[in-house]
Amino acid sequence: MFIDRAKILVKSGAGGNGAVTFRREKYVPLGGPDGGDGGKGGSVIFTVDTGLTTLLDFKYKKKFVAEAGGNGSGSKCYGKDGENLYIRVPMGTIVRDFESNKVICDLSHKDDTFIIARGGKGGKGNCKFCTPTRQAPHFAEPGMPAEERTLMLELKLLADVGLVGFPNVGKSTLLSTVTAARPKIANYHFTTLKPNLGVVKAEGINSFVMADIPGIIEGAAEGVGLGLDFLRHIERTRLLIHVVDISGVEGRDAFEDFVKINEELKKYSVKLWDRPQIVVANKADMLYDDEVFEDFKKKVNELGFDKVFKMSAATKSGVEEVIKEAGKMLTEIPIMDLQIPDEERYIEEEKRFTYEVEIEESDEYNTYVVTGSFVDRLLSAVNIHDADSLRYFHKVLRNKGVLDRLREMGIEDGDMVRLNDFEFEYIL
Predict the structure, then answer these.
(1) Is 110 part of any domain?
(2) The domain that contains 215 carries what CATH number?
(3) CA-wise closest residue to 164 among 243, 265, 64
(4) Cβ-contact 13, 41 below 8 angstroms
(5) Which residues make up the binding site for GTP (predicted)?
(6) Listing from the earlier edge strand, what are the strands of the sheet with 356-360?
(7) Structure-model confidence comparison of residues 202 and 13, the more confident one
(8) Quick count: other Cβ atoms within 10 Å of Cβ 69?
(9) Tens digit of each residue's pLDDT (9 = 90 or more) over 222-248
């Protein structure tokens, strides 16, 4: 089974909470606060494993959660950091944000790693909030929340040479002839339902990887059949070997097939269409009129393709010439990373705690409702029943500009301010 796309959910570990504790020992009745910080949550990290060739593992496991950080404790003991979670993927895996379908990262090299979800930072213990005027804080900071995101993994084969052409033109036969790969071969359309890879080794050339891409039909670039899934795999190839059936035994015209396939490549990607091609007229052993090949070659040459070969994969006639030409061309074609347009790249938004203010008007007084992630975090860090904690609460509101924002909106003495379930009267 070949799995080349997978939808998964990843979640990092939340940071541990800071502790609210006080040192209490014999002969030390007022030892002061000694709450330790919470531990950092584990991150979720993608790493390339060259031993993997499919995304099959993600068919059975779709949720990945890293370990949370431990909570702080007394005696200024810090919580344990959560373990990072490493997810192994095949080389050539593209990670997309599921909602926007934009590319987050391209893991196309042997040692590539990428932190896809960072663990939450641990919260500070109450000993970190000591000041000369606040010597016994009864509050601590909660850990930062975990990051959670839904991803689409997409595998694009890493092959030097891609075999393209209509179904049943002999691509699988050629691959089995020149490599150790053993794809299923039969006289049926769409025999190949998954890409097959093999390593080509021949005397006088450097070895290279060849991929037999399943047959492409008209409308493939619009998603007809399995077109888009198939076209995806040849984006990384440096050279295309375009195979056509020159024999005409099935009533097809080799030149028309050649033009149609190139039109699909161009619709899908101009860069893919512009990739160097070797044109192979296969099944020449069943061709009884050489004029047919010469006419085909002339038309293809007029389109700007000068590498045209007559071959029979079944009898191996002409196969060596094609492979040596491919090996020679690969030495002149540089290895390039997959080109991802800027508009398709995912831009990570800066994670900030924000707030919004709305006004609820009444005859007696107005209520200013403050909501947002900033409010949630602030209220989880303070003890509203403790005087020192409330002073810290008001200090944060002032430092973060919340009070200035309320004044700009026209708050008056006696109006109410509500943050979630906590409400207080504003006094100038």
Answers:
(1) yes
(2) 3.40.50.300
(3) 243
(4) yes
(5) 165-172, 190-194, 212-215, 282-285, 312-314
(6) 356-360, 367-371, 416-419, 422-425
(7) 13
(8) 30
(9) 444 444 455 666 777 889 999 999 988
Categorize the per-residue pLDDT at 311 as very low, low, confident or very high, splitting at 50, 70 and 90.
Answer: very high
Mark the binding-site residues for GTP, compressed into ranges: 165-172, 190-194, 212-215, 282-285, 312-314
Q: DSSP letter string over 360-385? A: E--SS--EEEEESHHHHHHHHH--TT
CATH of the domain at 369: 3.30.300.350
- Residue 165 and residue 149 share a domain: no
If asked whether residues 218 and 279 sit together in one domain, one would say: yes
Q: Is the pLDDT of residue 257 over 50?
A: yes
- Which tops the pLDDT comparison, 50 or 184? 50
Q: Are residues 218 and 320 in the same domain?
A: yes
Under the banding of pLDDT at 50, 70 and 90, the label for residue 180 is: low
Mean pLDDT of the chain: 83
> From CA 117, how far away is CA 315, in angstroms rounded?
54
Domain count, the chain: 3
Examine the pLDDT at 334 and tell me if it is beyond 70. yes
Say what the pTM is. Answer: 0.70
219 and 367 assigned to the same domain: no
Q: Examine the domain organization and report whether 25 and 139 are in the same domain.
A: yes
Over residues 211-227, the mean pLDDT reads 53
- pLDDT computed for residue 365 by the predictor: 87
Tell which of 119, 154, 189 closes a domain: 154
What's the domain range around 251? 161-337
Annotated binding site: 165-172, 190-194, 212-215, 282-285, 312-314
List, as one string, the DSSP characters of 327-357. HHHHTTSPP-PPP--GGGB--PPP-----EE
On whether residue 350 sits in a domain, the answer given is no
Q: Which residues of 411-423 are buried (b: 16+ CB within 10 A; e: fewer)?
A: beeebbbbbeeee
Q: Furthest-apart CA pair in the chain: how many Å?
A: 109
Residue ending a domain, among 124, 154, 184, is 154
Q: Are residues 131 and 208 in the same domain?
A: no
Selection from 377, 424, 383, 395 nearest residue 133 by Cα:
395
> Strand 148-155 vs strand 208-212: parallel, antiparallel, or unpaired?
unpaired
Sequence ranges of the binding site for Mg(2+): 172, 192
β-pair partners for 366: none
50-65, pLDDT tens digit by residue? 888 788 889 889 999 9
Q: In a 3-state reduction of DSSP, which class is residue 129?
A: helix
Asked whether residue 321 is assigned to any structural domain, the reply reads yes
- Contact (Cβ atoms closer than 8 angstroms) between residue 13 and residue 5: no
State the pLDDT confidence band at 220, using cuts at 50, 70 and 90.
Answer: very low
